[in-house]
Amino acid sequence: MQTAAARPQPVENEREFKPGRPRSEESRRAILESTRRLLTHMPVSKISIEAIAKKAGVGKTTIYRWWPNKQAVLMEAVFQQPAFQNFMPQSVTPIEGIKGQVEKLVRQLSGKNGRVVAEIIGECQGDIETLKALVKNFFQDRYNALAYYLQRGKQDGTFRENIDLEVAIDAILGPIIFRLMSGQNVDETFSKKLNEMLAGALR
């Protein structure tokens, strides 16, 4: 799924697109909320900047002042919701941490949320800069969390010392994203089986 240019690196998360001038918070909220409402009854491919502007009661230039394209608006509208926030508890064991990350991501990608994320991923494939933004906005903090738990596990003997972090993270995230993009179930049963496999493979 990742290209060499788009692969996450273990750094602090940040947004790809930053505003060039102060935002009107009221208009910003209206744009993001209108985008979320459109997503409840329209596929991503049918949503346009024009439709978002009309729904929010603003001009297209207002949207382009803050976001470079439709995909950027969609990413902020979706990934800044509380349901998509990712946390990294440091008091758990490495295997518990990885298990928690898998379970959380599967919950986030189940049902309608999963369909929306799959469509956003699909829309980002044609532009490398937008793909980089997707990686930063959605995958980066998950990559960082997995890298943290894997490194801790290597240091304390939970996992094998010769584990390659990038390959291990691909092996964790890859099956989830593959199932999502191929229309298969991403559910609790799958996350349980994946965690059971990982518990043995990483040791």
UniProtKB/TrEMBL annotation:
Region (Disordered): 1-27
MF (Gene Ontology): DNA-binding transcription factor activity; transcription cis-regulatory region binding
InterPro entries associated with the record: Homeodomain-like_sf, HTH-type_TetR-like_transc_reg, HTH_TetR, Tet_transcr_reg_TetR-rel_C_sf, TetR_C
Keyword Transport appears in the UniProt entry: no
Regions of compositional bias (Basic and acidic residues) in chain numbering: 12-27
PROSITE patterns hit by this protein: HTH_TETR_2
PANTHER family linked to this entry: HTH-TYPE TRANSCRIPTIONAL REGULATOR RUTR, TETR-FAMILY TRANSCRIPTIONAL REGULATOR
Protein name: TetR family transcriptional regulator
